[in-house]
């Protein structure tokens, strides 16, 4: 079975070959293709409706805000995957149906040696497959503490994400038209209209002199 290190090496090799193939095609295309620019090719659209104005216009900043918030929360959600791996493996080790030591697999097994499945779980979590003190119950107790610790860790992390999400929601960053949203509920008081007679009698007016 492939180890986590071998899997990472395979992925790195695949990404490296893909990058080399991509840049090699771009380089070959740049050297081989003809370079014949003209006025029509330099337009925004080579066909369709005639171009009105310049293409170098300011992009709506609301798109940047939404994209930035999406990237921030989407990248932080990626941290759930390592936690899920550790939590899942630790939960499997706490199960009484899983043989932790070799003696639980077969009567002739060594009680001071981890079973192949338990050793694999230790390796997948990045820990040394060594049976500590306490035997099988010690391993299950350690795995239970690890599962509870990882659950508390992800609970705090998720709470921080929710606080940040509530903050940007409260500020109105998720609203498309923020200027209208901030003015929601505000009542503008206006003075009642004045009659012509009151205007003529008001001090300082030309007609009152």
From TrEMBL:
Main localization (coarse): membrane
EC number: 7.1.1.-
Record membrane topology: Multi-pass membrane protein
TM annotation in the entry: 6-28, 63-84, 146-169
Class in the EC hierarchy, top level: translocase
MF (Gene Ontology): NADH dehydrogenase (ubiquinone) activity; oxidoreductase activity; quinone binding
Keywords assigned by UniProt, alphabetized: Membrane, NAD, Oxidoreductase, Quinone, Transmembrane, Transmembrane helix, Transport
GO terms under cellular component: NADH dehydrogenase complex; plasma membrane
Any matching Pfam family: Oxidored_q4
InterPro entries the UniProt entry points to: NADH_UbQ/plastoQ_OxRdtase_su3, NDAH_ubi_oxred_su3_sf
Localization in the cell: Cell membrane; Membrane
Reaction equations catalysed: a quinone + NADH + 5 H(+)(in) = a quinol + NAD(+) + 4 H(+)(out)
Function as written in the Swiss-Prot or TrEMBL entry: NDH-1 shuttles electrons from NADH, via FMN and iron-sulfur (Fe-S) centers, to quinones in the respiratory chain.
Entry similarity comment: Belongs to the complex I subunit 3 family.
UniProt-recorded name of the protein: NADH-quinone oxidoreductase subunit
Gene behind the chain: ndhC
């Amino acid at each position: 079975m492939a180890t986590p290190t071998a899997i990472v090496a395979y992925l790195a090799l695949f990404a490296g070959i893909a990058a080399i193939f991509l840049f090699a095609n771009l380089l070959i295309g740049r050297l081989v293709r003809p370079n014949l620019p003209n006025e029509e090719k330099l337009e925004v659209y080579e066909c369709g409706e005639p171009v009105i104005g310049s293409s170098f216009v300011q992009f709506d900043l609301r798109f940047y805000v939404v994209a930035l918030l999406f990237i921030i929360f989407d990248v932080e959600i990626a941290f759930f995957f390592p936690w899920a791996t550790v939590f899942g493996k630790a939960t499997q080790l706490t199960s009484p149906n899983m043989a932790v030591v070799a003696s639980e697999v077969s009567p002739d097994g060594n009680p001071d040696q981890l079973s192949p499945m338990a050793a694999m779980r230790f390796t997948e979590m990045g820990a040394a497959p060594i049976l500590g003190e306490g035997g099988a119950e010690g391993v299950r107790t350690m795995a239970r503490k690890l599962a509870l610790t990882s659950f508390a860790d992800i609970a705090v992390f998720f709470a921080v994400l929710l606080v940040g999400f509530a903050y940007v929601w409260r500020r109105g960053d998720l609203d498309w038209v923020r200027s209208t949203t901030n003015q929601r509920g505000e009542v503008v008081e206006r003075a009642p209209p004045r009659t012509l007679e009151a205007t003529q009698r008001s001090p300082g007016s030309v007609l009152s002199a």
